[in-house]
Specification:
single chain, 161 residues, mainly alpha, 0% strand, globular
């Protein structure tokens, strides 16, 4: 069951507004490459390839049944975007942030193997999908796990890990 969250609603509205208000930042003219400018790295999570890409990321955002640490997960995904991804195309989309959120959730409970096992299809399938930066997903998931493991020591309640 999808629970209502003001944070998720605000993020969804911002992503949709960015997509429609800033068409010049769509996949055709924006995104990041490993050698992109700092602005490209900061703004890539807000850019989406098309409306289906945007809708899939918003759906996945609403399917995550835990609290969101948006600032730290956003920053982790931006930092991970500087790592080599070995992809020849620009990267865009909110999925890096989503993977960082999921990684943080698992990191708080110190269960790395379970995290990999439960998310194996989300990690394997994108390898075979054209135009998907699967390595960035892995970077963000592992970085989120490390963040949750090292910095989030508060008690954490969730029903999915």
């Amino acid at each position: 069951m999808i629970k209502f969250s003001w944070a998720k609603l605000v993020v969804s509205v911002v992503l949709v507004a960015w997509y429609f208000a800033m068409p010049q930042y769509s996949f055709g003219g924006y995104g990041i490459a490993t050698c992109g400018t700092i602005w490209e790295h900061l703004l890539y999570p807000l850019s989406h390839a098309n409306v289906w890409h945007l809708a899939a990321n918003i759906l996945c955002l609403w399917m995550i049944p835990c609290e969101l640490h948006l600032l730290s997960s956003f920053l982790l995904s931006v930092l991970c975007s500087f790592l080599p991804c070995f992809i020849g195309e620009a990267t865009c989309g909110f999925s890096g942030v989503l993977f960082a959120i999921v990684g943080m959730s698992w990191g708080r409970v110190h269960r790395f193997r379970d995290m990999i096992w439960r998310n194996k299809w989300w990690l394997v399938i994108p390898v075979f999908v054209p135009h998907v930066n699967a390595l960035l997903h892995v970077y963000c998931l592992v970085a989120g796990w490390l963040w949750g493991r090292c910095f989030d020591k508060a008690a954490y309640k969730t029903d999915w890990v």
